[in-house]
Sequence to fold (415 residues):
Amino acid sequence: MTVKKALYLCFWVIIIPVFSQDYTQIKNRFDTYLNYHGSLNSLVDIALDKIVFYNAHKQTEFTLLKNDWEKFAFLLKKLTEDSLEKIYENKALLNKYKTPTNNGSKKSIHELKIVIDPGHISGNMDMARIEQKYLHFTKQNHAALKQDSVDIAEGKLTFETASILKKMLEEKGATVSLSRKENSTSFGYTYEEWLKTYKKKTLDSLLSIKKITAQKHKQLIGANPTVLFSSFFKDYELQHRAAVINAFAPDLTVIIHYNVDEKNVAWKKPSDKNFCMAFIPACLTADNLKTIEGKINLLRLLLCSDIDESEKISGLVVNQLSKQLNIPIANKTDASYLSEHCLGSPTKGVYSRNLALCRMVKSPLVYGECLYQDCENEYYALTQNTETVYGIKTNKRVALAAQSFYNAILEYYSK
Ligand SMILES: [Zn+2]
Fold:
């Protein structure tokens, strides 16, 4: 971005309250949400008058004085990653920008740009097996099964939910985009197509820029599709998914998932548990600050109100899921990943978790886990194709989940 173009940004009027640079709020975001078990203690200092980033030798690397907090928060939402990294490396560049005006008013629904991310990829059982996001119940494993077998692909449920929600929000005038197509990756093609056409090219190019070693390259080239998916493609695709979402510059990102009972491994028979919950960004560790990009991302989460807004909308989504689907909201002790890898927020059912998408998406977000697919009260209903909503064939539970997200989004933007 040229300096001239950047200066032009100074005259923009900001219409969302994305900036919140009060010391108490920043310190609270750091202590309560971001600094996971103190892992950032030696790398970041939040003082009344400045934020300081240190390198591994405890030498000051970057200082942001309080006077610049508001300006930098604005730039974090407006400048390219490259321009932000240049400021981090040479803070004098910050003087080229003026502090913006913030009128703090919220957008209304018809002005919104929303990305909906249907979790995972699969639109059929073959792909669901490759990405290990499926249920397969048989009478052999569970005699009380109402039919010979039950097969559920999570990526199919998320795609149906996202497609219905998209239509509902578009009817209200919002501009809505999905992060992927049906049974497809965020690259716009299937995993199978990637294997055939892009696998070698991708791995060769990563080897040439030394992102992977020759040994890793050899191992990945020879891996079967399932192993290659879990050891490489899953994370590689998620990074691209975040880039696709960020390129749309959304006001809100809605990430849709359907959960399972973690203790019911390998999901061959039903469980009696069922909960809804939502995740928001946070719980960073030193690993997340190894690159300048990671440090810029922490500055965004500290200075902008993405965490606060994510928590508010996630709270509304969880309440709606619980009400519409009639299932309880998960407490911290209801799953080991909640008690071991998450920090609870003051909002019931909303947990800070260092998930790749939560960390990389640069907008307020809700990462909703609608229900437990393997619950004995759910699995049968999830396989029924009795409903047609906006031309989309689905079941009652998915239709209710879509309704829950919709109600919560409307509630959030009407406040
Ligand atoms: Zn999922």
